[in-house]
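Hello,

I think I submitted the nicotinamide-adenine-dinucleotide job twice by accident. Can you confirm which output corresponds to this input? Input:
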Amino acid sequence: MPTTIRSAAVIGSGVMGATIAAHLVGSGIPTLLLDIVPTNLLPEEEKAGLSLDHSKVRNRLATQAIAKLKKVNPAPLVSVEFANRITPGNIEDHLSQLSKVDWIIEVVVERLDVKKSLLERIESVWKPGTIVSSNTSGISINEMVEDRSDDFKRHFLGTHFFNPPRYMKLLEIIPGAMTDPEVVSYMTRFCEKQLGKGVVIAKDTPNFIANRIGTYGMMVTLREMLEKGYTVEEVDAVTGPALGRPKSATFRTFDLVGIDTFIHVAQNVCDNVADAEERNIFEIPAIVRDMVARGWTGEKNGQGFYKKIKSASGKEIHALNLQTMEYALSQKVNSASLEASKQAKGAAGKIKALLSTPDRYSDLAWNLLKPVLLYAAEKVGEVADSIVEIDNAMKWGFNWDLGPFELWDAIGLARSVKRMEEEGAAVPDWVKAWLEAGHTGFYKQEEGRVFYVSRGEYKGVESQQEVISLNQLKLQNKIVLSNSGANLIDVGDDVVCLQFQSLNNAIGGDILTMIQKSVDEVRRNYRGLVIANEGKNFCVGANLMLLLMEIQDEEWDEVDNIIALFQNSMMKLKGLDKPVVAAPHRMALGGGVEACLPADQIVFSAETYFGLVEAAVGLVPAGGGLKELARMASDQLPNVDADLQPLINHAFETVGMAKVSTSGYDAKRLGYMRSADTVIMNQDYRIYEAKQAVLRMDQAGYVHPKEEKIRVVGDAGKAVMQLGAYSMRQGGYISDHDQLIADKLAHVLAGGNVPAGSYVTEQYLLDLEREAFLSLCGELKTQQRMQHMLTTGKPLRN
Ligand code: NAD
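Support: Only one job matched these inputs. Its output is below.
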């Protein structure tokens, strides 16, 4: 077994193979991508005089797949230039290269015969010790290698990625009967840490965990709707966020996955399970087969359960009427239960509200949930060892907010089991015995630890050392300081974490006050500070609503106070003589970026969307963001003669266009990453990694950086930037208001009206920021931009 995986080969460059290769290179693993050799020339190849023997033709499938990776949305690559870390090839000419890699992943068509013969060829060049895995969606791992040697079998397992691999957290690992347990535990750790995945261990049963239970749920839904006459729109209104599931609900999901693909997956269960009743559920309804026969397979073919139609007024969504097989304008669905669910908070609250407001839709919700909960309970032990694996698989693979057992607890285990039994449903014996033993839920929390039922008793959920849960620490009374916007939490080893907890983690006065108090606290009692939280996003920026209210009341002193408080808090944070590490995840915008930049180090999660977007709401960053960009540009200069202008131009363009990084790595391209900053793949590890960085700095004898003056481009450099903005305006690319904002940005970034090459203090630049910000607040068009963002969530170009 390799000590660590440093290189990989993916065989099959289709939808999954190419995107798995993209994820691997994004995780730092150079990857060989192989496919079959084409048997025909394309017209353009013929025209170019190529023959079937030419390497360009022989590698064509993989080469084209790599080219496509740069165009697909959502982007499979964290950064387009990473595409050149994938080497294309074919399985005839490059098979022997498989002996040089540490991990080989088979991602070819879902056919046992094809997979078996490919594995035979792989073994012919296999270097003992190399890990080999299959990305099958549901074919038996054991059958695939039945003809292979024992040594090969010991190194073979299933690694089932979900589509799209970069974004879907779930990875099912399926050990075969002979897989070496060390290989399983090594791959589990590796896929969690290096690939950032949420791993569940599945048993070698048809479709493994998520696709078995998820497909069952979809089959039950189809049957219920056909029997009771619900429409496509009605089912989707119930089975989306109202049930703690994604907006794509049932039928948008069918269309996205492809109805033909779905049939294939469901058929696999039908063909491979012994129980006749279960087989019956997975039998595809004739109407769905009919849709595929008509080519209505979903989005890839332009229509499925929904169809987008261009009309005079733009795009219209039409939904299929399963009675008439005709499409009609999609109808909005509402009812008392759906409304109650919409108003309720959190997934558990929404589901409870839906179920407890009796009407036609709460009936549907119950009739869909009941069989899925019972099915999940029946499958414990068969598809996975524990309820935790099943819950995680459904959350990470199907984006459900709650796994079936968590959901069951949320709606009241005893009460719902009683209702199920009254309605004649067969509740698995283990569930009945658990209730009879006096337990009220599958899970329980005790002193900040989570326990789950396993073979008739509570067992502690294994926590990974690298996952620090602030929520758990709160339950263990580790809060050091707290107010309505933020907490300071003791994360152990004399390190504390500043956690935002406002709505959308927007920064207001309470968070700023807490930043200041935290600095005092850390200075007195701790080794360092982490800035991170467990919100959906790290921080969407400063509290715009508050600011707009003050502006509309013409409370200019108040607006000035808000900026001063922001700037002073950031300066205080920057002045802390202990290590500070920020660990943003997902969205970190505007003020969220400014709260990270004073830190000594930023630990970016791979999926971080980072940018100073103030221009989009008619403002300029004034919490130290521009000052920090000017500082970073100045610090990057190798010597006093080096040209600062290109660096400042780049910052000007980034902020002027309110660019946001498309990943943690992309923050580097935008110029937000300093040399000490890092990117980690597993977002769940961010607080731990940030804490480790604090400890490392502390142990190395942290010396607080001395404040150096910042070199600026001055008035000559400002003119360069302003000329750029003027040309954009003349070309019709930006509006008058955009140009005004750009002028203000140029003024601050250039250091105002000083000679080129001057050195200025941080406070001087902060004053320029504040002045520019305040002047823009008085502009009607800026106020309109802010209002528009608050009401629609989208930028206004005025
Ligand atoms: P696909 O049809 O898009 O691609 C299959 C690729 O395999 C093609 O490029 C084909 O040329 C190549 N191929 C076929 N035989 C080959 C061989 N002998 N050697 C090398 N290459 C060969 O299929 P896909 O959707 O990428 O699925 C691939 C595998 O991943 C299947 O096992 C599928 O069940 C599984 N999977 C798919 C999804 C999904 O959403 N599409 C999700 C999870 C798992």
